[in-house]
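Slide 14.
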Amino acid sequence: MSRSLPLVQASILTPGLITLSKNGVDIQKYLNGVGLTPQVLAKKYAPLGKIHHFWNLFDEIEESEGIDNIGFLAGDSLNLHELWNIGVAITQTTTLYEALQVTSSLIPHIVQGISLNLSTEGEFTHIDYIRNHDGVCKTADQATIKYTLTLIESIKGSCYTPTAVHLQSDEPCCSLGNIEKYSPMFGEKNTRVTIPSLALAEQLEFNVTHPSFIVDAVELPKPGEVAQSLTAILTTLLHNGYLPSSIETAEIAQMSRTSLFRELKAENTSFIQIVERLRYQRAKQLLENPSYSIKEISNALGYANANNFSRSFKKLAGHSPTGFRLLQAS
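Slide 15: predicted structure.
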């Protein structure tokens, strides 16, 4: 049976990592420790396979540096306004309810298959994180709770205690941090924070300056087969002028090349088929712009030379790149 390949938006790490570097943290050491490469993070819209690697980076930094892992997501220890588009959007809200609504709308840009839902029951409101894929990553599970509690503390103060904190994960992480003081319950049906409904209307106040770095992350596709997620990875990289090899792609997906090929075969496709389809789609877009030469397009799509590009394109389009461009012009 084919498995899914959950994705997160790797580029949203970049502003936080830059800020940590400015504070003397050896970021490269932590990236190496969790198997993340600078090449992946350097691509503006590069999604990253295997969510647990993403969250493990937070935990490693938190445990060794004493910085709460939500710090460079929600401004607990660092500056909210210097981070990415959720941070900037939250600084523009005035109530906890608005901040949670912003979070709900932008979560699909960050982690694939997670949504936030608000529901009211009597005098209380439940803040639920819903996962639309199998399995629970405990670090991701608990980091989402940390994020919510950080927002609540920003208006109620660090001594405030929510009515209840529930987690789907069955045990705490080694770096549970500020969740522990809320006496969380593990192994629950939902990842949830329950608070009095009146707290949603209380005012938020942020000391905002002009952001120095913003990542405008794109929305990730809905969870699906490995081929679908791999298509998202390669599409975003290809649009930024980078086409990784099958070995590099397997590293980005955090699986071996053999496992990657086996998963794709089970879905009746292959790495080559996916790459050639994406190259063809991108080539048609680039050919519509007459300022790009055939050689430039060939290079952008990762072909060894223009002749290889022309043969591959003609096989799918029935026309050479030049012929296709002339047909479009007419």
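Speaker note: Residues 70-83 have pLDDT under 50 and may be disordered.
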